[in-house]
């Protein structure tokens, strides 16, 4: 199966999911299906069932645009057998409750597992498909249907066993080192403990996943990558085969290969930076050493990113255009921080960066808000302008 066919299959799955979800919505009734919580009942109700909660402000334009989608999801889950409840908290009337849950921008969306009081923040685009996928991932089963989207694979000591059901979705973004094998293959049997050792040694590495596929059980997956012999070790980026490993199959050699491939991507991103005109410095690049001094004055809008991240790559040209808009404003800086650099990893941990890209706004060195809106130029610009003082003219 080629990439065009693969993308078509993924698109078809999303369309089928959307059709299914829309079919669950009964248009005969027109009332709010999401529940409204306050400081008086939030902590009690959140313990009883899984919850997806929107912390919002009534005046917030992004919140208003999200409202119909939020109610659509709430309507889909409005039955006694549902394993999740959709709720809202008005931060203008319950500011202390929102502060307790680290709400620094509107809307902030969090998933709360039943019995737990700490939520998991949603960082994707706020559309129906993305929100449903987020719920699917955290509920462990498909929201609204048992069979449309498979549950994500679970790693055993860092090693993922991929199947025909979950392979395409899993490798669609990010870096993947995959072993295609057959259980009867002697070379595969010899490699197995080394491959497990590699996965275990990289289990805490957020930048690459180590996985395997049994070609005797999942032939369609192996067929789409034209696997001719076993074991075949492929490096896959954002769903596409980039390289075939042909080196020595020792733990040291395999781990060195992973490092080389990750460093190669960093080098490629560096060579793509624009040095040809006055817009080169529209975006200020900071590291763990320069960050504190770089943001100590004025407004700083910071993108924490990883070069391998697909969402980061798509945001990069928009982020540069955003920087150009503020080139003449000395009080606003558009900043980026590469969290994969050793010099910046501690900084990213300190700033609670738990996904890429993460966008934080700082005023005079202090973090004041996280941006969770649409990643287009107009919305990003509008967000900054809400924090710019009246005398900060562009």
From TrEMBL:
Going by the UniProt record, its keywords in alphabetical order are:
Redox-active center, Repeat, Signal
Any one GO CC term of the record? endoplasmic reticulum
Enumerate the spans annotated as Thioredoxin domain.
Answer: 16-140, 141-263, 269-389
Q: Which Pfam families match?
A: Thioredoxin
Choose any GO biological process term that the UniProt entry carries and state it: protein folding
Keyword Signal attached: yes
Q: What superkingdom heads the lineage?
A: Eukaryota
The record's annotation in SUPFAM superfamilies points to:
Thioredoxin-like
* Cleaved signal peptide residues: 1-27
GO MF annotation list: protein disulfide isomerase activity
**Protein family per UniProt:** Belongs to the protein disulfide isomerase family.
Please give the name of this protein.
Answer: Thioredoxin domain-containing protein 5 homolog
This chain's source organism reads Apis mellifera
